[in-house]
Amino acid sequence: MGPRADEDRDEDRDEDRDEDLDRDRGEGRDASVDWAERRRIAEQGRGDRAWSLWGPYLSERQWGTVREDYSPCGNAWAALTHEDARSRAYRWGEDGLAGICDERGNLCLALALWNGRDRILKERLFGLTNQEGNHGEDVKEVYHYLDAVPSHAYLKMLYRYPQAAFPYADLVDENGRRGREQPEYEIEETGVFDGDRFFDVTVEYAKADADDVHAVITALNRGPEPADLHLVPQLWFRNTWSWEAGQARPRIARAPDGGAVCTHERLGPYRLAFDGAPDLLFCENDTNLRLHGGQPDAAGPFKDGLHAAIVDGDPASVRRDAGTKLGLHYALRLAPGETARIRLRLSAGLRAQAVDDGSLVRRRVAEADAFYEELQDGIASADSRAIFRQAAAGLIWSKQLYSYDVRRWLEGDPLQPPPPRGRAGGRNGQWRHFAAADVLSMPDTWEYPWFAAWDLAFHCLPLALLDPDFAKKQLLLLTREWYMHPNGQLPAYEWEFGDANPPVHAWAAYRVFEIDRDRRGGRGDLAFLEGVFHKLLINFSWWVNRKDAQGRNVFQGGFLGLDNVGVFDRSRPPPGFGVVHQADGTAWMAMYALNMMRIALELALHNDVYESTASKFFEHFLLIAEAMTDMGGSGGDGQGYGLWDEIDEFYYDEVDIPGGGMLPLRVRSMVGLVPLFAVEVIEPSVLHRLPDFARRLNWVLENRPHLARLVSRWTEGGVKDRKLLSLLRGHRMKALLRRMLDEAEFLSPYGVRSLSKVHRDAPYVLNELGASFTVRYDPADSTSNMFGGNSNWRGPVWMPMNFLIVEALRRFHTYYGDDFLVEYPTGSGAMLTLSAIADSLEDRLIALFAKDGTGRRPAFGTRPPIAPAPGAEEALLFHEFFDGDTGRGLGAAHQTGWTALIINLLRDRARPR
């Protein structure tokens, strides 16, 4: 059985999907509303209708990215700045405020604002660069993704715009004065929102059809005095004509009968309709050569024409007939509490169309309500349902178009100056095959407007609940030949594709398969699973061949996504230090081997050719387990040395030092908890149905008993005679859990910390080879500048790792059952099952976002409150990580990527046990 083309797989699923919808609808239900969104998702999956043609794919930040960096020094933040962005054309994408675009990014629709006081037109979000922020890059705006459905038939976003001049300089200067020991200076602290002197600007999109999009922009004066507001919806074409000869320039022109007509040779004609009588301002999406090209007499208008016309009052900076960028200028004055509303419609074709009278938006909202009602079945709390829905909204809004052709980027464009010397051997120089032009799930639309391989894997679990086909295609996409390196490596992230992220792709693929199978009534998508499995065979081989430096099944990998968790940068050990033997790197590979075995077993139930492959991964897992205990290769005679510290009863990294010795790095961190993740339970029915696999397992265990002793009591079946594969036998697991569940160490009120709290009063200090390093517990922002200092793995709570901990505990419980009890919390005297502990950890994680006894949400911390928006009193944020003591949200404030795993936790807690 081989992988089939996507269209063949979709055709096979057509009838199943329709049957699911008909069965779920039930009698007396209004299917036209209740199942409208699920039908759109099904139509998209079958290829019947391209609902994905338009979506929230427009980035919130294109400036400061690697792909726009053509500098000689590789400083992306300085190569194209926020100040440059309004007057320089982008090469690889576009950005805008609350915007959408087509899936190729040809035509973009977004909002610009001016309050009459700012020095620039607000066309994009502002934030600090990595060098400007005292804790790295950070967006300095207030906005919330309030609602969305997977087909993008309905989208809603809130932006809060101060009526005072935006505090650009104050934010830069004050953050520059603050050190790493101080918190970030946020826009709420500047005073620009005092007295509620701001506008709530809500942007909604509703599709009448796949290529017919309505937009509603609503502005409310929250302040106590009348205030001026310039609303400037913008429509423009991405610049595709300035890079090589022969590229036609598209056009947006005023229509004789009202509105505007857009023509593009690939996208086809589109028509823009709008209400009211705005001033139509046209310019070109071209770099202002007077500012950036040394050509003072260059003819405009340029990309910054709208800014110059509205803010600077220069009428010569725009045209009134046509261009590649159009602004609809509405000049308003709103009384206190007054609301203004503007309606637009962007539709395919040349025929004039009327804007929505409100009925379409109301219908799409009702359909969204029905979609989420079904997904939230069993979640009783209204607050939990709101958390679920806004997390889903942020995840959907974080779909972004990612365009980046590395070969073209390295070599330059024919119509532009050649790149600087040495560029070919610099960043991503070994990834010339990489050529992306795809919609990807991004970690955050401003701070991380680029994909990261392991982030995306976590994103796919909540995405699988919302839109399983999109989740599966995301996982497959990163294994395609224009992403995966010919040697089998998956690209990590654009700052360095060659870095190694934890190998969680196989885990995510199987979990998505399981979620999708549940949604499909037990019918799993074997073609997807087989397709991704074949590609991951190549990736697994890359790990074995490239990241096992000494061929002993002990793996490295460098920082492995955990940034500053190490004593030093594990990707680049200091002079004199040798290979770092990583407890997490090795455990991740053990988990990878078990994940691949699990997939092979699933496939073998339908095609017995995979039985031998499953047994191969079983044996590989055993060899890794042996290496973690016996790196010296003593053959299990007890004379070897491993990554488990018998005195501390914890896993540590070890580093080679001169003279042939190995130095354990005794930092109690998340690194030592990763071995918990390598666990698999095999049902006896699987062994019964796969006799060849069972026979091979028994041969290995009988002929290599020293391996069997390392991982589990294989001959002693667990609950229902299940078999356990794990790096941890009962004693070691309980030893790890004793530390992990200790509130004086890892266990916080809001989940498991990334570093033990014991290092607050007892920092780990290493003085070796003339170098000195210190690791101390930092529960909030990082106080070190390792990896830019914008994330911190030395104390905060991270959602993805906690999610894996919860899953591991549940899997262990299926083997050990209710008779296996662990003290929780450590020292409390209370004994709980592993399943009950998993429940409690889920509750702690959910508590990050839920209201506490005072009505505050811990994730919000003590930041100054801003008046709630009408209809969105519970506007939430989903941060990158959380204070290990207080739960306050930290890092990227809109990282609904992996923090959207809260959706899966809420669903899991709603299930009856």
Q: What does the model show?
A:
- With 913 residues, the chain is α+β, with helices and mostly antiparallel strands.
- 32% of the residues lie in helices and 19% in strands.
- A hairpin with a 5-residue loop joins strand 11 and strand 12.
- The relative contact order is 0.09.
- The model is unreliable at 1-28 and 635-639 (pLDDT under 50).
The major sheet is characterized as:
9 strands, antiparallel
Percent helix, as a range, is 25-40%
Shape: globular
Q: Which strand order spans the largest sheet, edge to edge or round the barrel?
A: 6-7-8-9-17-13-12-11-15
Beta-strand content estimate: 15-25%
End-to-end gap: 37 Å
* Class by alpha and beta content: alpha+beta
Count every helix, treating DSSP H or I runs of 4 or more residues as helices: 26
Q: What does the radius of gyration come to?
A: 28 Å
